[in-house]
Design goal:
single chain; about 200 residues; alpha/beta; Rossmann fold; 7-stranded parallel beta sheet; about 30% helix
């Protein structure tokens, strides 16, 4: 099944992890990528600029009602939840989820509802369990889930929570994640489970 949207969640240590993931994607990567990175309120161009330096794909902060276009990277703005709707992105200032806004679970769950089997979720380093429920929803809707191997994470708690919950289709070292992701997007086939905490 074709993957049209990749959703990525990260917290502590996420800048390095997300940059590494984006750096490994081919310039002609044709799925949209949406990133929920836990972060403080800061000038929007700082994180966008850092990620843009890592990839040939255009990177931008998502705005309310933005259409979701292939081959682009969208970043949840600081202090907003980023949701996927049938017509594009939506932003919300609803209550924090697991002490976070943007919430990884909110992004993942809304993406699963809209894209179903055409979404791929990637959970990276982080210091809480945000993202586990979202990955579970992606799997329930027929999508694919990848989790960074905890041994390669700046903070193991987030990937370990997802692995313990049994919601990872594959557990992959950070340096191999882009290749694994691109393989799923190119072939439409689920990866054979591999890796462990």
């Amino acid at each position: 099944m074709r993957v049209d949207l990749v959703v990525v969640g990260a917290s502590w240590g996420g800048l390095h992890a997300v940059s590494t993931l984006l750096r490994g994607l081919p310039a002609d990567f044709d799925a949209a990528v949406a990133v929920a990175q836990h972060r403080g309120v800061q000038a929007p161009d700082l994180l966008v600029g850092s990620l843009q330096a890592a990839t040939a794909l255009p990177v931008q902060e998502a705005e309310d009602k933005d259409p979701i276009e292939p081959g682009r990277v969208y970043l949840a703005p600081a202090d907003y939840h980023l949701l996927v709707a049938p017509t594009g992105f939506e932003l919300s200032v609803d209550e924090r989820v697991q002490h976070a806004r943007p919430s990884i679970d909110v992004l993942f769950e809304s993406a699963a509802e809209v894209y179903r089997e055409r979404v791929l979720g990637v959970l990276l380093t982080g210091a809480n369990s945000d993202g586990t429920a979202g990955l579970a929803r992606i799997r329930a809707e027929g999508g694919t889930t990848l989790v960074q191997h905890p041994a390669t994470a700046a903070s193991r708690r987030m990937p370990e929570a997802a692995i313990a919950a049994g919601v990872a289709d594959a557990v992959v070292a950070l340096d191999d994640l882009a290749r694994a992701l691109a393989e799923v997007c190119r072939t439409g086939r689920r990866l054979a489970p591999r890796g462990a905490a």
